[in-house]
Amino acid sequence: MALFLRFASILSLTALVTSQLVVNVKNKGGDLIQENIQADIPNDLVRLSFQRLDGTLVSILIDFQTETKIQRLIVLGEQERDEGRYQVVCFVSKFNRNDFISSDSMSKLRQKNPGTIRTPEEDLGIEDHTMNLAIDPKKSSQFSKHIETMCAEAKTTTFTSVLDIKGWSKGSNVTYQGLMNFARRLNTEKISKCSLVSKSSVPCACALDVCIGWYPCGLKYCHGRDPAGKIINYRCGIKTCSKCHHFTYQVQDRHFCLWGGRS
Q1: Distance (Å, rounded) from C-alpha 223 to C-alpha 63?
Q2: Which of 15, 83, 188, 189 is buried deepest, with most CB atoms within 10 A?
Q3: Is the CB of residue 90 less than 8 Å from the CB of residue 137?
């Protein structure tokens, strides 16, 4: 296996606290995408970024401390369609710790052959998200302190959902109401798709897809025996996955959703 985990029993004080992995991935259409994955142990973060063929810059930050995932898209405009230079959209969602290996495990991931094109072991399909809440990046520290910096240019286009807030609340109505105070409700489910709206200045539902072609989604364990002959389990590799997220969110005018089918 070209990719392996180096789990040292004793970490020296001089060990690197931030590591980076550059991975070549072939997407479902057969195109080659280069992903950059960084692990930040002191802040318990993992960052993943790549550029799609249409020029869209995708940056994903996983905050393990607050169980929050921030997905930022910088969508470049097309001059022939009278679009602006670019738009920035942020999607903030509840993160399940079992969906990605820890920042510590990620920091120990190495490649023997960096030029190899990676293929995920499992395709997890598409997950739909209806983003029916807007949040102000400047007032977002209740969700994650990293939103304000990462989504600074998405002042009115940073979204989350009621479902995500329920996930963070973990059954506590007090926590739920507290988080809802920092969010503004949207009519995402009730308004028409932007592709069906002909008038300007009418709110409509836009959609964007974020597809991650390769990422470490879990650890593999092997069986062995200790010196006394007792059967033990030990980490011996990683499981890799691919997954797409389909986000539906509200825009104030169809002109903010001009990419239509190119999402």
Answers
A1: 31
A2: 188
A3: yes
Alpha-carbon distance 189 to 161, whole Å? 11
For the chain, the residue count is 263
CA nearest neighbour of 99 among 69, 121, 56: 69
**Is the pLDDT at 40 greater than 60, yes or no?**
yes
Confidence of residue 258 (pLDDT cuts 50, 70, 90): confident
**Share in percent of the chain as helix, strand, coil (round to 5):** 15, 45, 35
Cα–Cα distance measured from residue 41 to residue 55, given in angstroms and rounded to the nearest whole number: 30
Q: At a CB cut-off of 8 Å and minimum separation 6, what does 74 contact?
A: 56, 57, 59, 86, 87, 88
Using the Cα atoms of residue 129, residue 134, residue 137 and residue 139 in order, give the sign of their dihedral: negative
Tens digits of residue pLDDT in 85-123? 899 999 999 999 889 999 999 998 888 888 899 999 999
Phi-psi region of 71 (alpha: psi -120 to 50; beta: other; left: phi over 0): beta
The stretch 205-233 carries a mean pLDDT of 90
